[in-house]
Structure formats: C-alpha cells, structure tokens
Amino acid sequence: MESATTRPLDGRVAVITGGARGIGRAIAVRLAREGAHCAITYRRSADRAAAVVEEVGREGVKSLALRLELEEPGQVAFAFEQISDAFGRVDILVANAAATSFRPLADQKEHNVRRTFAISVDSFIASVQAALPLMRGRAGRIVAISGMDSFQAMPGHGLLGGAKAAVESLVRSFALELGPEGITVNGVNPGMIATDSSRLYLERGLGLDYEAAMVALADSTPVRRIGTVEDVADCVAWIVSDRAGFLTGQTIVLDGGLTIVSPLARFQEKA
After folding, report:
1. Neighbours of 58 (CB within 10 A)
2. With 0-12 CB in 10 A as exposed, 13-18 as middle and 19+ as buried, what is 120?
3. By the 8 A CB rule, do 101 and 162 touch?
C-alpha cells in the first residue's frame, strides 16, 4: 500500500450514496486507495455495506456505513449530522444512488414517479445542502452519477432518464452558484457498464441473452470493450482530485465512444 503522504486525497472525507454495491462500491474503494476516509449510504444491503466498510478500512482510512432512505429526502440532514460527528468535515460528495420502476412512461404509477425523482433529484439537492456547511472553506468536490438514458431514449428508462437529465441540469446550476467558493460540481455519465443492474435490464427488461448482448455492444464500441465499475471510479477519482480544479459544470460521457457512433456507421461495420 502507498504511504499516506503520497496519496492525493490523504485526510479528506468522501460521502458516496448507494455505496454498498456496483459503481458506488468501486468509487468508495478507489477513493479510499487515494487516502480518503469514506462514508457510504445504503438502503437495504446491510451485509454488503459492512463488507465495503471492511474493504475500505484495509486501505488504512476510516469508514462508515449509514442506512439512508433517499426516497425520504428529509432523512438526509440527519445522516450528514452523523457524518459530521464521525469525521467533522466533508470534502467530497458523490451522488450515486438511483432507483426506479422500469416500465413505459404511460404505465408509470404516481408513487413511482415521486419515488424516482425523490431519490435522484430531491435527495441530490438535499445532500448538497447538507454537505455545504461541512464543505465550505475547502476545495470541495461534488460529483453526480448520471446515465445515458438522460440523453438517449431507452425502453423502460423514460422516467429515470428524465430524472437524470434534471440532475445534469442541477450540476450546471450548482457549479455556477458554488464556484466562487472553490467548490466544483460535475457529473459522470457512464455508458454500458458491466454491473448487476445492467444484467437485470438486458435480461428481464429487454429479454436478451446477457453475454451475447455484451459482446454485440463491445463490437459496436470504438474501444471494443464494455466499461467496468473501475473505469467509472477512476474518472471520479480524477474529478475530485486537485488536478481537476478547473473543471466544473460538466457531465463527462464515459462510454468508450459508444454514443458518438452514427447508426449509418453500422452499415460500414457490417460490410
């Protein structure tokens, strides 16, 4: 393990929502490796959250897992009070958690609409507001994890895509408001990443064979591979570092070039 003095995030405190699995877990582990103490939130995966706390602790930093129901944004302030008691500060906030009901917009129930926007939009605002008193006076970093459904129509993803598009707009507005205080606000928009959620969507949502679909997607991606949670974590680690201090208000599309390819280019690939 690197000595603490060589780690770029040494002594900083990171908060990652939805940090018990998938992309959130990878981000927590990566930031811990860079020297950051980590507080993660989870909804139901207490065992997984405990495992992440243990994994983060092996990097020689402090770690904490908090159960937080982001469907109730009013709970966010209390969670940050606990984080303040444990660490006394917040330097990095990564808003990663999201949930929705994957069905056509015409079939969405009112409670699904409220829940989706509460978890992605309302809780993002609440988290930033709660983090600010602990972040002011530092070179704070806020990162929102978005998704390609924010700018591409995907079956069953209309509701979550709308919420993520709203989050990307909030990123720009928060960046404008908080920039004078030295706090940057950015987003990361991952493409197709190999996760349990991706498997669930391809298999249950679209009725596809997961392995075959991933091969086809890799073949359609300029870098000829599928993204990993570590790819996303590496991107976030750079954004929250001192090296990215001039980057703000941006949402980086991290998809290996998948969404830059015109449908017309597919004809050439098959020729």
Report:
1. 12
2. buried
3. no
Q: What is the pLDDT of residue 270?
A: 61
- Contact, 43 vs 70, CB < 8 A? yes
Kindly report the pTM of this predicted structure: 0.94
Amino acid at 151: F
Q: What is the phi/psi pair of residue 111, to 5°?
A: -70, -30
User: Does 271 score more than 60 pLDDT?
Assistant: no
Can you tell me whether residue 257 is helix, strand or coil? coil
Q: How many CB atoms lie within 10 A of CB 219?
A: 10
Mean of all residue pLDDT scores within the chain: 94
Nearest to 150 by CA among 188, 204, 201, 93: 188
**Distance separating alpha carbons of residues 158 and 53, to the nearest angstrom:** 34
Terminal Cα distance for the chain, rounded: 49
Instruction: Report CA Rg, the chain.
Output: 18
Which SS3 state, helix, strand or coil, does residue 103 take? coil
